[in-house]
Prior knowledge:
mainly beta
Amino acid sequence: QVQLEESGGGLVQPGGSLRRSCAASGRAFSRRVMGWFRQAPGKERQFVAAIRWSVSMEYYADSVEGRFTICRDKAKHIVFLQMNSLPPADTAVYYCAAADLLTVSTAPLESPGTYAYWGKGTQVTVSS
């Protein structure tokens, strides 16, 4: 079991930055992939970024490549999502998620269905 608690959402102006945090508790972190997803009103949940816990290998959606950075604090079990150069189109509820490495080896990393554990999600609004 993995429990995920997110923080760091809110309102930011276009072009601004925001950092999301996801505190994870539970077991077997070395076998986990941690991901961030987002969901805008009326749209499907969308992959943003992911990181393999043990080796810190990162993956990004094309839409955020070069603007977002995912990283983790291994000792504190926290995953971060640094979001820069935010346009209004990045407005969404952002979710932290965790998947088992074995599942990721046979299922798409970008698919929400690959992830068994989810945070509650917090709103990020990019607006002037």
